[in-house]
Design goal:
Blueprint lengths: L2 H7 L6 H8 L3 H13 L20 E9 L8 H8 L4 E6 L6 E7 L2 H12 L5 E8 L5 E2 L2 E2 L15
Antiparallel strand pairs: 1-3, 1-4, 2-3, 5-6
Helix pairs in contact: 2-3
Length: 160
């Protein structure tokens, strides 16, 4: 794995010049490595980690378990590609175990996400069943703890 990619995966927030200085290479070499990683499809994009409670806007996330019927000569891939093509779908994984696809969906409201699941996901050809789990509170995102001393832990009152 390249040193540039290692820095990026650790979440280092360094400019190209700073990274070049740390790696003891020319900034142009870091830029070439960025370009190579993008051209080879290794580096697909940049995604910040946001604290959802501090954003100021409400969003609802749900994890959906899908049981699907694999297609002849396409296996699970064709159904997974159709599921992944919806803009509401943030993440889609093929899983082993009790269900086949794990899908993360985001929407403005619980109702919007529920409607998406019932009208779009559940009605897709090859989908046998869905189980939706709404995310209530995040504690850690992409390796970053979201609760700090300032955050209310909503601890229940302790009685003597």
């Amino acid at each position: 794995m390249s040193k540039v990619l290692e820095f990026l995966l650790r979440g280092e927030r360094l400019s190209t010049a700073e990274m070049a200085e740390v790696l003891r290479v020319a900034p142009a070499e870091v830029e070439r490595e960025y370009e190579r990683l993008q051209e080879e499809g290794i580096l697909l994009g940049w995604m910040p980690v946001l604290h959802p409670d501090r954003l100021g806007e409400q969003r609802v996330s749900a994890v959906i378990e899908l049981k699907i019927s694999p297609e002849r000569e396409g296996g699970f891939d064709r159904v997974a590609q159709r599921v992944s093509s919806f803009p509401e779908v943030q993440t889609c994984y093929l899983m082993s175990g009790a269900y086949d696809l794990l899908v993360v969906v985001r929407g403005a409201t619980l109702h919007e996400v529920a409607r998406f699941v019932s009208e779009k996901l559940a009605t897709l050809g090859g989908v046998l069943s869905t189980a939706t789990h709404f995310l209530l509170r995040p504690y850690k995102e992409q390796g970053h703890l979201l609760l700090t001393g300032e955050d209310s832990l909503d601890k229940p009152a302790v009685s003597p």
